[in-house]
Amino acid sequence: MREDARDAALRVDEQRLWQRHAEMAKIGAIPGNGVNRAALSKEDIVARKLLLSWAAKRNFTIGVDAIGNLFIRRAGTDADAAPIMTGSHMDTQPRGGRFDGIYGVLAGFEALEAMDEAGIKTRRPIEVVAWTNEEGGRFAPCTMGSMVFTGARPLADVLDVTDNEGVILKDALAQTLAATPEAKQREFKSPAAGYIEVHIEQGPLLENAQKTIGVVTGIQGLRWFNIEVSGKTDHAGTTPLALRKDAVRDSIAIINALTELTHDPADVTRFTVGRMLVTPNSPNSVASHVLFSVDIRHPDPQTIAKLGAAVEPLARKAAKFCEVKVTPTLHDDPCVFNADVAGEIETATRELDLPYMRLSSGASHDANYMSRVCPTAMIFVPCEKGVSHNEAENATPGDLAAGARVLTAALIQLANK
Ligand code: HGY
Ligand code: MN
Ligand code: MN
Predict the structure, then answer these.
(1) Residue 248 belongs to a domain with what CATH number?
(2) Which of 142, 213, 240, 333 has the fewest CB atoms within 10 Å of its CB?
(3) Pocket probe mutation, ligand 1, options 273, 297, 332, 364, max atoms within 8 Å of Cβ
């Protein structure tokens, strides 16, 4: 490892990093030590302003693109060189934790500050990005900011997405962009020479194996759908069952069919219905309309393709009384990270004498999309009992700092190649 990389890594300030998490956790704080900071919400805006206030104290330049991805750039000696990027997301699940996403943004910022304090220069610029709407909890699908930045989806495709309250994404986006006028406009698909994302594992493997660092080799495949079932509202007391077009009954039949499809004795396949909107949503009116989400995941490319292809025909077959509309909203095949970048992470981990293991990710991340446009890999640190997307999500200051040290060293190695 380069001397300057080691020097900067050892300047990562555990206390400052922990304190920053505490400050961010206040924005959207909910009982049980959790955080509810939805994408493009007023809480998201406050978090963006806080991050940019820290960047303004340093000689970093700030950029923003048309979907609100925020970029904090530390100059390199070669201004024209494509940057090495790092980052993650600041939005959370509705009952999210204090570390999912925000850790990758704060660790990236801590790496830039440690480089400043070590007084080191890198050939390439290094940029920290805070991706818009990684979670997809308010505006589906997830990983929206990185998807649009990398050109996997045109911005126009997502502007009219609405949240549960009927707010249109483009309106929430306009408000968010207006809140950070100090950020310079930035094009999509800006070239990057590499990307490393650090994140809590959101699973139990590191903790069970008593490892501090995960060198992440890839992400499993996932498919998201919105399924809409349209029937007819009727009186719950007087309408015979035989005459009903009951959207809830047909939704249950569809979900039972998908449960059967995804049944897996090895418990590797993941199937989740997390959102269900019922209309008119009254105990004594037969439901005329149901919209529900489908999230299916599997690490094997053929299996996830087969499962994804089966959803629409199965939904149509299972529904006996109502119209069914199946809209795919996310189609991610399993991704394999770049061996050289993973190698730099492993070398830095070994040279910093940290216990580690290689593993793949069950959760998806913006690194999924960045891996399609530049050499990409991830670093994991443990979270308590693997719990995430839950207020009880927890991590230790020591592990967070260790991940930030590996990140700092690996970024410097890559930025001088
Ligand atoms: O859904 C996911 O895997 C990520 O945590 N947003
Ligand atoms: Mn995340
Ligand atoms: Mn998440």
Answers:
(1) 3.30.70.360
(2) 240
(3) 364
